[in-house]
Amino acid sequence: MGADTLGMTARLLGAMANAGARRYGGERVSELAHALQCADLARGGGAIVNSASTLAFVALEGRSIYSASKAGVVGMSRAAAVEYAARNVRVNVICPGTTETALFAGLLKEYADQPEKIEAIRSQQPINRWAQPSELAEAALFLFSEGASYVIGAALIVDGGYTLR
Asked: Catalytic residue among 66, 84, 111, 150, which?
């Protein structure tokens, strides 16, 4: 996705925050609160799209802290949606599934000698592939757009059907 596409969202106040896979403390929560304050200050309202994860809705062994942090982002986003709706600020959250990022590439590298493990991860995706970052960006752009003007407090799951299983 090019800079022009992102620039199209400039007329909407958009603040995208990510709770982060490696940080669970108050610093990230402060960033989310700051995003809410920025949107609140905008004249004419705006849109905030936070980023959580499908792990806010499903459990994976060894990922309890990560899952709890992502569930917290979903809950905070829904509460903020109610609080800010009267100010014409829409708050939503996207919940991506497995996405081909640098972080995920590291995981694949870790399992390079275990192709069956990689295939097991891939086979959990009904569409048999992982998301591209641009696909998540498109979902976020929709939530920033006027096409989503009646969408508040939504947790948009973008996971290729992973949570359907």
From this structure: 66
